[in-house]
Amino acid sequence: MRYSVIIPVYNRPDEVDELLSSLTRQAFTDFEVILVEDGSSLPCDKVCQKYADKLSLHYYSKENGGPGDSRNYGAAKAQGEWLIILDSDVLLPDDYFNAVEKGLAETPDISAFGGPDASHPDFNVMQKAVSYSMTSFFTTGGIRGGKAKLDKFYPRSYNMGIRKDVYAKLHGFTKMRYGEDIDFSYRIVEAGYKTALLPEAWVWHKRRTDLRAFFRQVEHSGAARIALTKLHPGTLKIVHLLPAVFTVGVVLLVAIFVVGLMMSSFGYSPTNKALGTLLCRISMLPLALYSLIIFIDSAIKHSDLHVALLSVPAAFTQLMGYGTGFIKACFGK
């Protein structure tokens, strides 16, 4: 078997249905699928039965142990030379495995790889907006797999490939609840194995449709960055600090705006009122400029003004959520 596709899942039968459907349309077929149910209350066993005669599909159910534990469970069952780690909320284009084969032929000395993610044309506007916020150079620096990036690329678990023997030597994922895929990528590189980005081996990645849930997701990622820095000294880069700086900056600008608003509304002299008006305008100018940049860039990429408009709050949510988690973790909270 050339590839073993490992998919941990928790309460997402509908997403699994769509992912398995995309796997049935692959032009390259030398792969098996190992789906690990991680203590779900909404199991997808019936969904898997639909594809029993269409895929080499193996379904396992276990007690909840987190995504890393479920991937390790699946890896122990795998027969493939390469393990392909996917999240349950992705879809594969029909030539995904052909792109992987081409990428591996061009980089035969690598032991692990990753690919970019993108939003499907059929995704709703909020999913596209959140996808933009997670992949744009103006929000994450392009470190999630884009060609323009401020930091070295590391494979991520939504679209990761690794040789099975290397996976075994490194004992797979740890029990970290958040950031476990980055930890694994760091350990791959630290062990001396080569990794590569295969830009043509991309996936469609669904995103949150609730900004509050999205905020919690990226807040966990921000907190995980501190834990990763402690485990892997020297991995903290300037790009990781930017969301915290952005968060503090936004809070300060809003505070200045509030002070200016109070001065302009309740100032006892024309001078105080004029100063308050000036403070309001100056404090809002950077936020308005950044929002305009996000709006224009998203509009160009999606050709959809609705997506562009929603990309603005999505970008602020992404940066401030990550920044909040990062700052809290710095103070041990």
Describe how the helices and strands are arranged:
Blueprint: E1 3-9, H1 13-24, E2 31-38, H2 45-50, E3 57-62, H3 67-77, E4 82-86, E5 90-91, H4 96-106, E6 112-114, E7 117-118, H5 125-135, H6 137-140, E8 159-163, H7 164-169, H8 180-190, E9 195-197, E10 203-205, H9 211-231, H10 238-266, H11 270-302, H12 305-330
Parallel strand pairs: 1-2, 1-4, 2-3, 6-9, 7-10
Antiparallel strand pairs: 4-8, 5-10, 6-8
Shape: elongated
Number of β-strand runs: 10
Q: What percentage of residues falls in helices of 4 or more residues?
A: 40-55%
Count of separate DSSP helical elements:
12
Output the strand order for the largest sheet. Answer: 3-2-1-4-8-6-9
Mean pLDDT: 92
Beta content: 5-15%
Q: Give the biggest beta sheet.
A: 7 strands, mixed
Give the class from helix and strand content and strand pairing: alpha/beta
Order of helix and strand elements from N to C terminus: EHEHEHEEHEEHHEHHEEHHHH
User: What value does the Rg take, in angstroms?
Assistant: 22 Å
Identify low-pLDDT runs.
Answer: none
Oligomer: single chain
Task: Give the termini separation.
Answer: 46 Å
